[in-house]
Hints:
single chain, mainly alpha, about 75% helix
Amino acid sequence: MSVGNISFVKDFVIVGFPGLQPHYYGLVSALLLFVYVFTLVGNAVFFTLFLKTKSLQKPVYYFIINLVVCDVLFSTTTLPKIISRYWFQDGTISFLGCFVQMFFVHYLGSVCSLALAVMAIDRYAAICYPLQYHSIMTNRNVLICILCSWVLSLVAPLMIVIRAYPLPYCTENTIVHCYCDHVSITTLACTDRALYSVPALIGALVALLGSLAIIIFSYFSIFVAVMRISSTRGRLKTFSTCSPQLIIIALYFLPRCFIYLSGNIGIKFNTDLRLVIIMMYSLLPPMVNPLIYCLRTEEVKKILRKQFKKRKIGLAVDVDRSMEQGHVQLLESIWGVDAVYPDRLGDISRGSGDT
């Protein structure tokens, strides 16, 4: 579309990693596909385990399931297009489609931040107020917390999309990123973006640092409460209940804070390195979170052990039956039915005598 001598873009092209050589496209697309499939399968396994096991249907696991849903949606929002870019050399995305992706990238990122904050509050209530925990974290309150994390996260992403969409985009249409986000899109606008970038940055920092502040307060209070426990074993056991969430929080927040701080204090990275860091903190947590839930949560490990034992016993019984049937068939072929089953001959003789 053009007005006078100004041409307006109708679609965008996602470049991905600008320094990546074409002969590595297949390898990168296969790696990204593996990450996506592993994310879907791992989270689906945990979700199925949650639905089938009544002992897992309690507040802490409701919060984890909330994070599972957010992780899967975020990966589905970002990965298919960049996989298509390297697998089929198709990085084109429509003008509207790019803004829709931008909205969900920032929206789901905010939801994940608040989900981790709510999980920290849950651990705070469980450890600091153990006697009142079940009256505090009722199913109703858990549902309210989860709904609030999804509703409150709508505001900032919706505002930045509404402000960015009408801008005139009349220069390049290449997005040097692996998905559409606010910075990569608004840098292409042929207008002063300061009026739009500053409110968006403030919104992002509020969502990120607000959630991080809640998490720091919760775990500082937990640390103080745990240090009052007299026995070392009791302290370690209490800390172990928090370790899965602390690992997830570290994977999610530390790289993000590093990128934000480095940009503000003047540390510059190569574009490809910066994109690698962004992709790692965007895609690594959704992929490894199911492993952390399963390997670092004692209750989930016990359930998985029981499931594997049942399957092993069932498999052993099936193998024994098949071996027995095979052995009988072999004897029948060598000695005949009468030799293998002598009772049958007596039954036949008695039957003929009665006749």
